[in-house]
Amino acid sequence: xxxxxxxxxxxxxxxxxxxxxxxxxxxxxxxxxxxxxxxxxxxxxxxxxxxxxxxxxxxxxxxxxxxxxxxxxxxxxxxxxxxxxxxxxxxxxxxxxxxxxxxxxxxxxxxxxxxxxxxxxxxxxxxxxxxxxxxxxxxxxxxxxxxxxxxxxxxxxxxxxxxxxxxxxxxxxxxxxxxxxxxxxxxxxxxxxxxxxxxxxxxxxxxxxxxxxxxxxxxxxxxxxxxxxxxxxxxxxxxxxxxxxxxxxxxxxxxxxxxxxxxxxxxxxxxxxxxxxxxxxxxxxxxxxxxxxxxxxxxxxxxxxxxxxxxxxxxxxxxxxxxxxxxxxxxxxxxxxxxxxxxxxxxxxxxxxxxxxxxxxxxxxxxxxxxxxxxxxxxxxxxxxxxxxxxxxxxxxxxxxxxxxxxxxxxxxxxxxxxxxxxxxxxxxxxxxxxxxxxxxxxxxxxxxxxxxxxxxxxxx
Length: 461
Ligand SMILES: Cc1ncc(COP(=O)(O)O)c(C=O)c1O
Hints:
Elements: H1 3-6, H2 13-24, E1 44-46, H3 57-68, H4 85-97, E2 108-111, H5 114-125, E3 131-135, E4 153-156, H6 167-180, E5 186-191, H7 202-214, E6 217-222, E7 248-253, E8 266-269, H8 272-284, H9 291-301, H10 305-335, E9 340-344, E10 353-360, H11 370-381, E11 383-387, E12 398-401, H12 407-415, H13 426-459
Parallel strand pairs: 1-11, 3-4, 3-5, 5-6, 6-7
Antiparallel strand pairs: 2-8, 7-8, 9-10, 10-12, 11-12
Helix pairs in contact: 2-11, 3-9, 4-9, 5-8, 6-7, 10-13, 11-13, 12-13
Pyridoxal-5'-phosphate binds near residues 115, 141, 191 and 195.
C-alpha cells in the first residue's frame, strides 16, 4: 500500500474526534476544564454554525399558522408517524428542479434530521465485514453515525488543491484495500457540496459513480449543503448515473441551507426496500417529526431562491474577506520575523466554511498539529477554530466557519419592529451582515495574527 493511502488512517479517527471535542470545550485529557471553551463568554467562535441568518420568514409564519388552528394536526395526537404530504411534495419538487430522476425520488421518508437518517442506515445495514469510505475533509460529526470501530472506516485522501475525491483515487483505494482484507460490502459517503465548500461537477460525479458501479460500492449522498452554492445554477445534482439508483441513498436536510437545524427535519430517497425499513425503524423508535416542524420545513423549501441567493451572496463576501485577510496575515507574520504562510486551501463554491492551510518553514521544537493550534487560540486569543485533526488531516489544517458569525444580529434586524415581525428589512439585514463581517475581520487581525506570532516564536528552535 503506498504511503499516501495510509496517511490519514494512522490514528484512530474516533479518538481524534474525542480529543478535538475536548479541546474545543476547553478541557485537558482528564476532562478538567482549564481554558475557555468555544461557547464561553468572550470567545469568538469560528468553529460552528448552521447558516447565515434566521430561518425564512415564510417558515416562521407557517409555524404560527399551524399553532393558531388545529385542522389536520394537534399536539395531543400521534400524527408524527404519518406522512406530511406537503413536505414530501416540496422535497420532490426541489429534487426534480436539480435534475433528479423522478424514479429515484419515489421512495422518500422524513426523519428527525439527516444525522438520524445516516445513523439509522448504518445501524440497520452495516455489518461486521463492511467498510465505509469517507473522503478526507469530512464533517467530523459523521463519525457519530458509525459504530466506533476504526476497522470499518477508511479515510480516502483527496488532492489538497481541490479537496474533492477523484474516481481514480476511489478505484485505487478499492484495489489496495481488497488486496489486504476481505470486504463484504463497501459504502461511500459522498458529501456534495463538501463540508468546506468544494462542489463536484456533474462530470466528476459521473466518473465517481462509474467507479462506484465497477467496484460494487453503495453510495450515500450527504446533501446537507445543497442550496448553499454560490453559483446561480446549483451544481449538486444527485445520481448522474441511473444504474446507481438501486445502490444509493440521497439524504437532505433544512439544517444548513435554511438555518433550521433546531427543528430536526431531514429526508432521504432511495431503493424502496431500504427506505421502507428505515421508515419502519423511525416508527418503532418514536423518531418524532411533528407536523408543526414539517410544515416549517415545507414552507422553507418552496420558492426559496431569493432567500438562498441573499445568503450565498453574503458567503461570497465573507470568503473574499477571509482570502484577502489571510494574505495580509501572512504578510504581517513575515514582517514580525515568523516564517509562516496561511491561506485558504481551496476556493469554495458553496457552504459556510473554508479550509485553511497553515505552514511554517522555520524549525520548531515540537511538531504542532491543528489540535495544538486550536488549544493555543482558545487559551491565548479567545478564538475557536475548528481543527482539521478531526476531519482526517494531520498537519496544521483548520476550518473557519464564517457563516453564522454575527447571526444573532440578523434575528434582531428581521424582528426589530414588532408590527413587521414576519417581514424582512433588507437594509437592517445588510447592517447585521456587515457587523458579522467586522467580527470576522477582527478575529483574523486582533486574535489569530498576534496568537500565531506568539505561538511560533515560543516554539521556534
Ligand atoms: C456535511 C453535514 N452533513 C450532515 C450534517 C447534520 O445535519 P442535521 O442537522 O440534518 O443532522 C451536518 C451538520 O453540521 C453537516 O455539516
